[in-house]
Write the structure tokens for this entry.
Amino acid sequence: MSVCATDAIVLNRTLMGDSSLLVTLYTRDFGKIKTVARGARKANSKSGPALQPFMIVSATFRRKEHQELQTLNQADVLTVFRRLSEDLTRMAYASAVTELVNRLVIGEEPSHDLFELIRHTLHALNTQPPEAGEAIFWRFQLRFAASFGYAIQFVRCTGCARELEETNPHFSPALGGVLCERCVTQDAGAFLVTPGAVKLLNGVAAMPVDLLSRLKPSRTARQEIVRVIRSFFLYHLEDARELKALKFLQYMEEDQTAVPPTAPS
Ligand SMILES: [Zn+2]
């Protein structure tokens, strides 16, 4: 057993017993960990107020190897993204981000890159206009997929590796990328996408996050992008099927302008 200190992003918290909290953290140095914060709901608890979703904290915990639950000793607030809890659209996207990480990251595989990706994404959702939330979330998902070793290919055909031409490109969820007209027979599940949507997807993945608010994709392009990302996640990540975040995306696909009736949590 050792005492560890690390920066951590609060992904999720649930009540436990009379006064404790079960808190899932994505930490900079230990990956995803589940912790128990005993007494965190007592009025005099210092850690309790720091253990809200989306907060970045400095966490100290007792770590036992091969144990599912670790004991959280202390959590001090480092960053509060205040607007994420004040605006429903921002909160919905931030919840979708933390849910994806909470559900799809298994075990304690530390990744500084993933920690920074989550932190930058929450920061962008907090500071960029709410309308940019959708593109920020697309970018997060594309990069998140890449962090699992599934970088989606939008520039070269996944069949023949030639640079994609602009005639009838298809997207193959199974192969994780676009297929040219010659190679389309390689996957019966591939579907037609417009060259414009392919270009946008490639741009979103590569763009600095603070430039995403400049993108003004058409409704059709947005629907195509959502279909590409959803189909990819559903094909490769079995657990994705039950994700509220993906149901939320589906909702956005059906009605791009309205705020969802209930944000995923
Ligand atoms: Zn090809």
Notes: The beta strands are 2-16, 20-27, 31-37, 56-63, 69-79, 170-172, 177-179, 191-192.
